[in-house]
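Appendix B. Chain record.
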Amino acid sequence: MKTLRLFTIILLAVLVLSTWAPAPVYAKQPDTASSSTTLVVDLAKTKLARLRVNNKTGGTLYVSFSGDRGYSFSTSNQGKTTFEPVIQSGKYTITVRASTCNGQLTFRRKVKGGTVSLPVFVCKHK
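C-alpha cells predicted for this chain:
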C-alpha cells in the first residue's frame, strides 16, 4: 500500500511540475514560394498625411477613408479641424457625412503626404 501511495504522489508531482515547465515551440521557416505576401512598412520613413476639414454643419462630421487601408475621423468642433498625420500614401475613396445632414458626399483622392484638405461642409435645410 505504501508503494502505491508513493507512486501516486510521485506521479502527481511529475504532472504538476510538467504543467509549470515551458512548452516547446517549433518555428518553421517561411516558404519562399508562399502564396501570401506580407507588406512591411517602416513608418519612420513613410510620409504620413494629415486631414483638414472645415465643419459648418452644426453637428458632428464623420470622414472615412477606404482603399488599401482604412481610416475614420470625426469632429463635433465647428470650424477648421486638423487631425494628426496618420494617413499613409495611396488612393482613397473618402466618404463624408454629418449628423445634421441627410446623405453623404464621396471624393476620390490620391494621397502622397502633407495635408488632405476637404471643402467646407454646410448643411442646407429647407
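Further analysis of this model is presented in Appendix C.
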